[in-house]
Design brief:
By secondary structure, the protein is an alpha/beta fold. It has helices at residues 2-22, 24-27, 45-60, 76-88, 105-113, 137-151, 168-182, 199-209, 227-236, 253-259, 288-300, 329-333, 362-367; strands at 33-39, 65-71, 93-96, 117-121, 131-135, 156-161, 187-191, 220-223, 247-248, 308-311. The strands form 2 sheets. The protein has a 6-stranded parallel β-sheet, with helices on both faces. The radius of gyration is 23 Å and the shape is globular.
């Protein structure tokens, strides 16, 4: 009898070991996959919206996955510790917004060794075992900087606003935009405040920068979270709508509403209305993390997924800005790209449509809810 019990225990142990060695898809066949969202900097609307869309994607696939979110802030060591703890807790998937492209590599490598599927979104990592889903930041910055430079007639004073330092997004954007403006010796960068991709921080930084000069002395503005804030400040300073300086680039609804012709926006507010602003709106896609989760589930299902997924850029100018009536996914698919001010706060990012993520749309960005089936 004792021998039979020992044999049964040994057989059970062998089955558990075989399942574990076979990887997560077999070991957890009867359960939901454990997914973790590792966020670093979270102090702006883009990050909140991206988190909402990841959580909405998890709800859309709630039969397959359960998601937990952790925020490390800008502390690299804390993000490393959190990733290690996720692995210890039995993670199958880790979706990460990395604060550094290289510092997390050892932790990611250790996670991969435990058969954890790791996806970085928007800001990239260099660890080969990880997957990356991102926007082409060099093209984004180059195209928007060239547009601003052209609207400035390649001369005049420029205010250059930077984002979250240390991320690949900020580094690549700044390098590419500087390369453009350096081509035009008559363009002078007169201020380079750090806006942290946050409208509130950008306003404070711009207020300090403009304390020693007038808006009439500025010919252009470039940078994340730069346009809606700078145009609002110009209007507050008495600048006529037809004298607003050209600006790029951000994807906020505030900027896109401001780009519409005056008098064309229903439910407008005094500080959130059409201004006819001269701008180009190109932005990192806030659905990158949600797409990363969807792709991670495909990896676990045994499907082939490329290590690099580049989300397409969409350029919106005063000629192509289009107000949505309801903001449905189908309506966005048909080409609208801006939302009624009564539906969306000005700092919210309007570039939420992606043909690869029909599960999520405006409800996901605002309320963490997937599209109705």
């Amino acid at each position: 009898m004792r021998f039979l019990r020992l044999s049964a225990l040994a057989s059970t142990a062998t089955l558990f070991l075989a399942a574990a060695l076979a990887g997560p898809s077999l070991a957890h066949a009867a359960d939901k996959y454990k997914a973790y969202l590792s966020m670093s900097y979270s102090g702006n609307d883009w990050q909140t919206e991206a988190q909402n869309m990841v959580e909405a994607m998890a709800k859309a696939h709630s039969d397959k996955v359960e998601l937990k979110t952790q925020i490390s802030g800008t502390d690299v060591q804390r993000q490393i510790q959190q990733i290690n703890a996720m692995v210890q807790a039995g993670a199958n998937i880790i979706i990460v917004y990395p604060i550094s492209p290289t510092a997390l590599n050892p932790a990611i490598r250790a996670a991969c060794a435990k058969k954890v599927v790791v996806f970085a979104y928007d800001s990239r990592v260099t660890e080969p075992c990880a997957y990356n889903v991102f926007t082409d930041q060099k093209k984004l910055a180059t195209d928007s900087a060239e547009w601003v430079a052209t609207k400035m007639n390649h001369k005049g004073n420029l205010v250059f606003i930077t984002g979250v330092p240390g991320t690949t997004v900020d580094t690549e954007r700044n390098d590419a935009a500087h390369a453009v403006f350096k081509k035009y010796p008559d363009i002078k960068i007169v201020g380079e405040p750090n806006g942290m991709w946050s409208a509130a921080v950008a306003r404070k930084a711009l207020t300090e920068t403009m304390s020693t000069r007038k808006w009439s002395d500025v010919s252009g503005v470039w940078g994340g979270a730069a346009c809606y804030v700078s145009w609002s400040m110009q209007r507050e300073a008495g600048t006529p709508a037809d004298k607003l300086v050209p600006c790029g680039t951000e994807g906020t609804n505030g900027m896109r509403v401001a780009m519409l012709k005056t008098g064309t926006v229903p439910n407008a507010k005094p500080d959130y209305t059409a201004m006819g602003g001269p701008g180009i709106s190109i932005e990192s896609h806030p659905a990158a993390g949600a797409l990363a989760l969807k792709l991670a589930l495909k990896v676990l299902a045994g499907e082939s997924v490329p290590k690099t997924t580049v989300m397409p850029l969409v350029e919106v100018t005063p000629e192509t800005v289009k107000l949505c009536k309801t903001g449905s996914w189908v309506e966005m698919k048909d080409g609208c790209n801006t939302f009624d001010p009564s539906l969306v706060p000005p700092g919210w990012f309007a570039n939420i449509f992606s043909p690869d993520t029909p599960e999520i749309g405006l409800h996901a960005a605002l309320n963490r809810e997937p599209e109705s089936k």
